[in-house]
Every structure is written in C-alpha cells, then in structure tokens.
Write a structure and sequence with these properties.
homodimer, mainly alpha, 6 helices, 63% helix, DNA-binding
DNA sequence: CTGGATCCGCGATGATACTG
DNA sequence: CAGTATCATCGCGGATCCAG
C-alpha cells in the first residue's frame, strides 16, 4: 500500500510513518509524536498560536477578548505552557497598570505553519466529515 | 469561506491565518478548526490513524497490541468515532470467532498526511522544545 | 475474538474572589 | 491590566464483567 501525501516536500512518507510508529510504540522511551500531540491536544493552545500568528504581538486582554470562550485561568495556563516550550515570548513592561505582550518565537511560527496546514485540511474536508456523520446516523437507526 | 489551496509550507501564512481566524472567532457558527482539533485532540485517534497508515488493514487485536497503553474501551470508542467521521471503514466478517478489519478511507489517508507532517515537525523540533523547558526551569528557581 | 455495559477515580476546567 | 488562589464540577478514561 502506498500513502498519498498532499505535501510534496516530504518523500518516503511510508517509511517515516513506520519510523514514527516504532518510536511511539515499540519502546517506553520519550516519544516526540506523543509530546507534540499533548501540546496541541489542548484546543486553547491551537487557538492561541493561530491568534498570535495573525497579529504578531498581543496583550493578555487582547488574547482573552479574541479567543472566544476561554477563561482567564486557562489563558494564563496555556500561555505559560507555550512560553515554557519556547513557542512564544512573554514581555513585561514594568508600569502601572501592567502591560504584558506575547509574541510567537521562530519555533512557534514554524508550528503555526503546521497548524494552518491542518486548519486548511479541516476547511477543505469538513463537508465530507459532516456528510459521513449524517450517513452514520441514518445507517444506525 | 475562502481557503488558499496549494502547498501551505510557509508562504502566505499570514493571510491564511487571518482567514481562519475570522472563521474561528468572529462568529458562533460552526468552526472547522475546532472540529478537527477536537478530533485529533485525542491522542488515541492520532496513534490509531498513524498505525493504520503503516499497515493498511488491521484487526481489532492487532491495533490493540500495536497501540501501546490503549485500553480496550478507548480503542472501541476511538474506532467508532473515526468510523463515524468517515476516516476509516469497518469490515465485519460473519464468522466464529468474529473477525473485524479496519482500514483508512481516502479521507483518512489525507488526514494521515497532515499528521505525518506534524510528527515530522515534532521530531525535527523536539530538541528545541526540550531545551526551552530546561531553560525555563533554570530561569524560575 | 470483538466488543458492549457499568462503575468510579481523578485530573482538567470553569467560576469566583482577591492582589500588585 | 494581568494575573494568583481556591473551590466545585464534570467528563475522560481505566478496570472489570459480560455477551455473541
């Protein structure tokens, strides 16, 4: 079987899948795939990165206002995680009232590229997914 | 909704981000990004898709054995979700003992491409992330 | 062999109140 | 403005038992 990949920049995909799979499941050692999944498994992280990808620098309040539905606490936690992982920088201006700006690092922007690619996939294929769900419901009743 | 098609790589990223951002946060309507995030936010889904991407067709037991750490229940739930969303097919062979085979659909394989790309990003950049974490720890003590 | 059904603990998350 | 601290909840996911 041959896997057809949309991104021509990567060759030998089948082997890569195998490699990553081996890394994931054959040992109990550190697994980069699991790690990155853990990072983006939190939807707030994804929304935050995409948000910063749009606007370069943003303040805490701007992020809170822009990311629909996020609580103050989760925004704080999310930003701390992303900063810890080197995906964004946190700049504090020592003034009253406080001002803090967040900005993607180069690393963060490279991940942004992946997430945009993923969101494009979502936009292109969501109709198929929705139709599959309808068929599934019809089939099981 | 307009989406820029083609190799996403890193060109034109800013504009695409803006489009998707508008879709995501400016309205309360259906959001494909949130939807796809919900799908891959579950690490078992990702592992399952990658697993199937490696081996074409797999039986329940083979998946269970291959995906390290997954429980029977979560594998069942995960497979049901993926089938419902049209990402894989479930083929039952009416025999005793039962035999069920799972296989990615074309849609599933196209998502596999995205996930492989993401895992490649993870493999290439995990060292930077790990170093950032160490620095973060050192900085905060 | 391939699940379905049930119970349940725990971590993630939201809400709220408070602070420099 | 930009958080911190605390509490309550709620759903994910593991364990277990059962069935076709």
């Amino acid at each position: 079987m041959k896997v057809t990949i949309g991104n021509p920049a990567h060759k030998g995909t089948q082997e890569n899948v195998k490699d990553h799979f081996s890394d994931n499941h054959s040992t109990n050692h550190y697994c980069p795939v699991t790690d990155v999944i853990d990072r983006i498994s939190d939807k707030w992280s994804v929304h935050t990165i995409i948000m910063l990808g749009k606007s370069d620098k943003l303040r805490f309040g701007e992020l809170k206002k822009g990311i629909h539905g996020i609580s103050q606490r989760m925004l704080t936690v999310t930003l701390k995680h992303l900063e810890r992982d080197g995906l964004l920088t946190r700049t504090v201006y020592p003034q009253i009232p406080p001002k803090v700006e967040y900005q993607l690092t180069d690393l963060g922007r490279s991940l942004l590229g992946q997430l945009v690619s993923l969101s494009e996939w979502a936009a292109e294929n969501m109709n198929q997914v929705l139709r599959a769900r309808e068929d599934y419901i019809l089939k099981n009743e």
